[in-house]
Design a protein that fits this description.
By secondary structure, the chain is α+β, with helices and mostly antiparallel strands. The protein has a single domain, classed as Beta-grasp domain (Ubiquitin-like (UB roll)). The chain has helices at 22-28, 62-69, and strands spanning 3-6, 12-15, 47-52, 77-79, 89-93. Strand 1 and strand 2 form a beta hairpin. The model has no long low-confidence stretch (mean pLDDT 97). Bound molecules: FE2/S2 (inorganic) cluster. GO terms for molecular function: 2 iron, 2 sulfur cluster binding; electron transfer activity; metal ion binding. One of its GO terms (biological process) is P450-containing electron transport chain. Keywords: 2Fe-2S, Iron, Iron-sulfur, Metal-binding.
């Protein structure tokens, strides 16, 4: 099964079901994750910084390309509400700027 590993969330491994967004898989696994616009691609709070395996992710969506062009999404970042993982393994980190105050993150 496709797997997302969140390095600074104790290297948690999350299985991403077929067709599910990363955000949906993260939430289904019971993790609290920022998503200010409710997963509509209208904020950047749900983003992850991809450390390994970006080639396994679905292509960037129109909102992601818009945010990249506006300088609000780095080239190595993806919006979890827009991104799917059809196959393979991806390692990512939640940026410090969007970390939730009540969640314990590792370095
Ligand atoms: S939750 Fe707002 S862009 Fe993903």
């Amino acid at each position: 099964m496709p797997t997302l590993i969140i390095e600074n969330l104790a290297s948690t491994a999350i299985t991403v079901p077929a067709g599910a967004t990363l955000l949906a898989a993260i939430q289904a696994a019971g993790h609290d994750w920022p998503h200010a616009c409710g997963g509509r691609g209208r904020c950047v709070t749900c983003r992850v910084r991809v450390c390994a395996g970006p080639e396994h992710l679905s292509p960037p969506t129109a909102p992601e390309l818009r945010y990249r062009a506006a300088g609000r999404l780095r080239p190595d970042e993806r919006l979890t509400c827009q991104t799917r993982l059809p196959t393979g393994q991806v390692t990512a980190r939640i940026p410090r700027a969007t970390q939730l105050p009540h969640v314990a993150y590792s370095e």
